Amino acid sequence: MTRPLIAVLDYGIGNLRSAQKSLERMGADARLTADAGLIAGAAGVVLPGVGAFGPCMAALCDTGLDKQARAAAADGRPFLGICIGLQLLYERSEEAPGTSGLGILPGTVALLPGNVKRPQMQWNRLEVRTPGPMLEGLDGAWVYFVHSYAAPMADNVVAVCDYGGPVAGVVAAGNVWATQFHPEKSARPGLRLLENFVNQARTAAVGA
Amino acid sequence: MNATVPSNARVIPCLDVDAGRVVKGVNFVDLTDAGDPVELAARYDQQGADEVVFLDITASSDRRETTLELVHRTAEEVFIPFTIGGGIRTVDDARRLLRAGADKVSVNTAAVNRPELVAEIADEFGSQCAVASIDARRTNGGSFPFEIFTHGGRTPAGIDAIAYAIRVTELGAGEILLTSMDRDGTRDGFDLELTRAVVEVTNVPVIASGGVGTLDHLVEGVVEGRADAVLAASIFHFGEHTVAEAKSHMAAAGIPIRPADA
Fold first, then answer.
1. What is the DSSP-derived secondary structure letter of residue B8?
2. Predicted ipTM?
3. Residue B46 to residue A188: CA distance in whole angstroms
4. Under the phi-then-psi rule, with left for phi > 0, alpha for psi from -120 to 50, and beta for the rest, what region is B43?
5. Which of A56, A83, A95, A195 is catalytic?
6. What is the three-class DSSP state of A49?
7. Which of A70, A84, A111, A154 allows an S-S link to A49, with CB 3.0 to 4.6 Å?
8. Environment class of residue B30 by beta-carbon count within 10 Å: exposed (0-12), middle (13-18) or buried (19+)?
């Protein structure tokens, strides 16, 4: 099988390397990169991340990767946001009221409610609400979450976890997927999701 | 402190590492290299561990390189979260470790000396990777019940551990790794009063550490200590129990937890 080129957007904050390494493990030629040419030629694009909405968005803009991310999401290539990389896809976040997100998905990322510990830092069970090729093998799987803010509940939320009520676990909109949990830190089920994504990228690359 | 929804408990093996090698002998018969922390961490990942903590006690001057190398290799072989602690003094120290692939950094002595370090790491990289490590002992009649110790638990800091827990939480710590130095190495179980006292004053997850000798101790840490996670070393390293056994035991006691074979 071919190893599809997957660009893991490197905006310089926190642990981005684990995402690259786990994609490689699942059969991708994954590059941690901020190079526009490389990103433009990739079969799939991953926006990974740990950290806070404001500094991460600022780092994306400083590196020009905000434009690269929007372009990749718009041109139909498989795109995967992880954790803060999911939240950055939205228009804004309560974590950084003055900061605009990428605006690829509508709505505002909101603080988890006060009746739960924040951050949610635990393994939790995924409940798939809208099955699809990206979620094969993931229904009922335990995955690792660490976050204090969450995406708005809407029809594009295709999997949830229960944390004082349903919390967005995976969102999907066409070629754009994003996980609130960390697939690169979720043992076998997480690697399965990344494998599903690599397969999407491989298929898209063949079709292109 | 206000949380009403319990977390799913986590089981966290801890590895003491010196110059890139596991300090205490480890008794898994089928490891190719029982002293390799990366191979051990990968084994714990396979057994169903929820996270792994490395405590780096390297004193030599090449510490930085050996530690980065360890983190680098771990990120390639281990697909659960891992924390590294020991000797982290600055935001730059934290940045290097996170860039190399660590998920969290645990700060101890440097943060006791200068608590703002917790805020600096949390502001730059997010609270989720800023772990405040607290080593505490009972004062047995002092002006506060539990005192902070630094430098691997050797040096009394004259600081109230409970007040410090509140302080580091306010500064942005995303988690507290709480070790009872009275219990550490005793195998008598966690100091449950200490654990509960810290859990009651903070709304971030608390990892109980120090004293685990039996699987029942893990249950006590969660049920009586109300810890979000339990850390243990020797019961896993010496092959007495697997992580899977620990999790089955905790689940049988009614604790919500990810099954080891999930």
1. P
2. 0.92
3. 9
4. alpha
5. A83
6. coil
7. A84
8. exposed
Distance CA B259, CA B262 (A): 5
Residue A178, beta-bridge partner list:
A81, A171
As a whole number of angstroms, the distance between CA B153 and CA B181 comes to 6
Residue B12 phi, psi (nearest 5)? -130, 105
Distance CA A187, CA A193 (A): 10
The pLDDT confidence band at residue B30, using thresholds 50, 70 and 90, is: low
Facing B3 at nearest CB: one of A15, A116, A144: A116
pLDDT tens digits for range B194-229 = 999 999 999 899 999 999 999 999 999 999 999 999
A103 exposed, middle or buried (CB, 10 Å; 0-12, 13-18, 19+)? middle
Q: Give A146-156 pLDDT, tens digit per residue.
A: 999 999 999 99
The token pair at A144 is 């690792």
Dihedral pair phi/psi, residue B107, rounded to 5°: -110, 140
By residue count, chain A amounts to 208
Kindly identify which residue of chain B lies nearest to residue A114, measuring between CA atoms: B3
CA-based nearest residue to B20, from B76, B50, B64, B51: B64
Tokens linked to B144: 């506060």
Alpha-helix residue ranges (DSSP H) falling in chain A: 17-25, 36-40, 53-62, 65-74, 84-87, 187-207
